[in-house]
Amino acid sequence: MILPIVAYGMPVLKKKAVPVDINADWLEKFVENMFETMYKASGVGLAAPQVDKSVRIFVIDPAPFAEWDELSDEEREKLKNAKMVFINAQKIEETGEEKSFEEGCLSIPGIHEKVKRPEKITLEYYDLEGKKHKQTFDGIIARVIQHEYDHIEGILFTDHLSALKKRMLKRKLDKISRGDIQVDYKMKFPKKKR
Questions:
Q1: Is 148 an active-site residue?
Q2: Dihedral sign for Cα atoms in the order 152, 61, 161, 178
Q3: How do the residues of the chain divide into helix, strand and coil, expressed in percent and rounded to 5?
Q4: 193 part of a folded domain
Q5: Structural domain includes residue 117
Q6: What is the CATH number of the domain that holds 89?
Q7: Nearest-angstrom CA–CA distance, 57 and 110
Q8: Is there a domain that residue 113 lies in?
């Protein structure tokens, strides 16, 4: 089932998400719906707060990046096989040199900006079978995970931008929160104030 993606300005996007019971009976179907929603919107990652559920779940599938010419065959293969679910993820550390990379977000359509993040991230998380993992990710996969992890912490990629850049984007962000945009996927906007 395709879920509506919440737009910039919705309070759920700024809340720190809560852990879930990894044995909850709704979990498998919810994750399936998240992947379906992400693919329909041509995304590479989606966090539960983006579909109006403030829980610590996110999904990724960075396979579209495997089409980039400048990647090594090894990186390309990693990206093609990186479809994953992260439940109750906790960041252990971020390491390595900070690098800039242009990011976008399904909740903030039409805006893409360079964001600096460390090269690697180590997480503890559960998979859909309830198995606990501790894993370090790097490259593009780390970038996608860092972006989605921020969502479950109530942080948007625009929060990483300079004050000047945020002021320059204010009008565009306001238009998104008013629903004054065209997208080819289902979205949910903040209630208009009367």
A1: yes
A2: negative
A3: 35, 30, 35
A4: no
A5: yes
A6: 3.90.45.10
A7: 24
A8: yes
- Domain of 132, in residue numbers: 5-188
From 32, 77, 94, 148, the catalytic residue: 148
Q: Count of alpha carbons within 13 Å of 1, Cβ hemisphere only?
A: 6
Domain count, the chain: 1
Separation CA 49–CA 59 (nearest Å): 12
Residues 146, 161, 116: CA angle, nearest 5 degrees: 45
Q: Is residue 52 part of a domain?
A: yes
133-173: pLDDT as tens digits: 999 999 999 999 999 999 999 999 999 999 999 999 999 99
| DSSP code at position 190 | P
The string of pLDDT tens digits covering residues 2-54 is: 999 999 999 999 999 999 999 999 999 999 999 999 999 999 999 999 999 99
Distance separating alpha carbons of residues 111 and 181, to the nearest angstrom: 12
Question: What are the tokens at 87?
Answer: 């439940």
Helices and strands, number each (H, E), in the chain: 4, 7
CA dihedral sign, ordered 128, 136, 66, 165: positive
Q: Are 31 and 79 in contact (CB under 8 A)?
A: no
Which is nearest to 3 in space by CA: 46, 61, 60, 57? Answer: 46
